[in-house]
């Protein structure tokens, strides 16, 4: 289980999909991408979907996501996305009253109980008191993280800089 903070955008793609019976059907699917702006979000989802959709498609909607972080899972069965509302509990020092602040997260899991477990794994490493106020399965198909292109090892040198060993 890992979590990642970024600027997340929810996108909606519309296209004609060939169903299992061979018939074409117009569908609308939701995806999430991280990007710096609406323009970059549109570019990123267009690039990502071009690899999966052979025909034409439209980016029908883009909006900033309300969640602060995404909790990813490496479990093979984690094929669903859940939106969780957590309430962080603090005590106001002046009034000594309990204060709750709401924060939204997107959680990857295969089932609702697994989503709750994943939240516990991530939040268990913190000292923050919280409660899960709500959790619900979303219609999201997938989340596309920004990945840096090829990472180079600092020790790598181009071939022309490598010196042949001197013969003895």
Give structural attributes.
mainly beta; 2 helices; 5-stranded mixed sheet; 168 residues
Describe it for me?
- The protein is built from two helices and nine strands; from the N terminus they run βββαββββαββ.
- It is elongated.
- By secondary structure, the chain is mostly beta strands.
- The chain has helices at 38-50, 112-123; strands spanning 2-5, 8-18, 24-34, 57-64, 69-72, 80-91, 98-109, 129-137, 140-144.
- The longest helix has 13 residues, at 38-50.
- The strands form two sheets. Strands 1-5-7-6-8 form a five-stranded mixed β-sheet, covered by helices on one side. It has a four-stranded mixed β-sheet with strand order 4-2-3-9.
Percentage of residues in DSSP E strands: over 45%
Shape: elongated
Count of helix runs: 2
Order of helices and strands: EEEHEEEEHEE
| Spatial strand arrangement across the major sheet | 1-5-7-6-8
Radius of gyration: 22 Å
Model regions low in confidence, pLDDT < 50 over at least 5 residues: 148-162
How would a crystallographer describe the biggest sheet? 5 strands, mixed
Subunit arrangement of the protein: single chain
Percent helix range: 10-25%
By DSSP, the count of extended strands is: 9
Distance between the termini: 54 Å
Structural class by secondary-structure content:
mainly beta
The overall pLDDT average reads 85
């Amino acid at each position: 289980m890992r979590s990642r903070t970024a600027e997340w955008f929810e996108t909606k793609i519309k296209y004609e999909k060939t169903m299992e019976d061979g018939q074409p059907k117009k569908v609308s699917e939701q995806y999430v991408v991280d990007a710096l702006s609406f323009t970059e979000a549109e570019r990123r989802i267009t690039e990502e979907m071009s690899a999966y959709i052979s025909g034409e498609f439209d980016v029908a909607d883009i909006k900033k996501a309300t969640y602060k972080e995404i909790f990813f899972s490496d479990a093979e069965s984690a094929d669903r996305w859940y939106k969780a509302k957590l309430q962080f509990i603090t005590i106001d020092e002046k009034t000594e009253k309990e204060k709750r602040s709401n924060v939204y997260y997107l959680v990857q899991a295969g089932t609702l109980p697994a989503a709750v477990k994943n939240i516990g794994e991530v939040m268990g490493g913190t000292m923050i008191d919280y409660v899960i106020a709500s959790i619900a399965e979303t219609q999201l198909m997938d989340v596309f993280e920004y990945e840096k292109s090829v990472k180079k090892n600092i020790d790598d040198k181009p071939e022309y800089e490598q010196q042949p060993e001197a013969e003895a």
